[in-house]
Structure formats: structure tokens, C-alpha cells
Amino acid sequence: IGNNLIVLDSVGSTNDYLKRLGSDGCENGTVVTTREQKSGKGRLGRVWQSKRDENLAFSILLRPKLAPKDVTPITPLAGLAVCKALRKTTGLDCRIKWPNDIIIGKKKLVGILTEMCAEFDAVEYVITGIGVNVDQIEFPEEIAYKATSILLETGRHYDKNRLLAALLGQIEREFTRYNLELPPEALEEYVSLCATIGRSVTFKKGERTVSGAAVGVTAAGELRVMLSDGTVRTLNAGEVTVQGI
Ligand code: BTN
């Protein structure tokens, strides 16, 4: 990962830029990073703030030989790798907020957005975009209560190139070790760092809002939720709201 590394000064979104390169046939493991994104994208159509030099923004393109339904472990594995790498390099007590945010306490430090291009039921490429809040000292009012940065948490400036190298190294190790799957050892690691497990979550069942306790994660990266009658449901990211974090 990162043998082909493209460094930009400014771009709309590294995910979109890499999508174009992907369609033009760029190699597996290509990485795009930038000093600034003009229209950074978050999950669920949200905006991701990426002002010049404040945020480490990068995207990785993979060409896995997988069916579309089998790419789901890529995001939790990337989250696990980023969490471990940041704990190692900064000493911060980062945790994973299922499915793929990295948080410190109740505040978000990293967001991950995975997009896939598939044709005829085969994956052409998968793009995993990662945004790490590094040097922000303040955030827009609407998100200030729920966002943080490495600078705010440690009082130190971390070199973004070194951080990128550490993150890419860990992502490559995790992807290789677990072969882009979530075997039991990977799930155990994920769960041990996941702040969502043990918390109360709610989800919609028709018109009703049902609550339960997050008890684990499946090999497909879904959340296992135990309801008050003891039954366990598996839910995907679009369905669940986690309480308290
Ligand atoms: C989220 O938490 O909603 C996901 C945020 C993902 C942000 C990263 S920054 C690099 C890449 N390019 C984008 O436009 N988005 C991702």
C-alpha cells in the first residue's frame, strides 16, 4: 500500500479523485493524500471539514478479488488499524465507535468513508478514505461538542507525513494478516478497542423504536444487539443509533 503515492496540494475529495484514477486502471494500493479538500465527503452525505494543513486526509484504492458482499470487513479492519497506530504513535486512549469512527472519550478524531465500484457482481475497486483531525484548535460551532484533534488532546503538533506513514504501515499489516476478513482473532481485537460494546443502542422496527445492548460484532462487521427478551439481532450501520457517545 502506498507504493504509488500521489500527493496533492488541493482537491475536491481524495475519494472522488482516486475513483477517477481507479476507472483509468491505477494499481492496487494506490494512495492519494492532499493538504486540503474543498468538498470533503463524510458518511450519509455529510460534509467532512478539511481545511489546509489541519487534517490528514487520504484515500487508499484496493482491487480485491471479492464479491461485493464480501468487502464489508475492509472498513472495520481499517478502523482497527488506524486506532492501533494512533494509540502507538500518540499514546492517546483512542477507541473505535462502531462501525468506523475513532473517538477519544465522546469526541470524534477520525472518520472513514469506504466506497466501492462493482461491475457484473465483481468488485472492480474499493476506496477507503480516512480523515484524521490533527491540528485543529477549534471546530465549527455545530460540531465543536463532538469533535477533537490530536493537537487538542496532546498539546503537540504531529508531523502529518509521519502519521500517514505509520497509518499506512499498520493498515497494510492488518489487511495482510487478516486477509481482508474478520476472523475471530480480528473480531476479538476489534471488540477490545470498541467503545460501543456494552452500550445501549436504539433502532427502528417499523414505526417503533427498539432499544438493546450492543454485545458484539459479526464477521461481516454488523453489530450484534441483545434485546430485553434475550434475543440477539444483527444490525447494519444505517439502522442503529448508539447512546451516549
Ligand atoms: C465520516 O465520518 O463521515 C467519514 C469521513 C471521511 C473523510 C475522509 S477524508 C479523506 C477522504 N476523502 C473524502 O472526501 N472523505 C474521506
From TrEMBL:
This is Bifunctional ligase/repressor BirA. Biotin binds at S13, T14, N15, Q37, K108. The keyword Repressor applies. Residues 1-179 form the BPL/LPL catalytic domain. Acts both as a biotin--[acetyl-CoA-carboxylase] ligase and a repressor. Its EC number is 6.3.4.15. Transmembrane segments: none annotated. The chain holds residues 80 to 324 of 325 of the full protein.
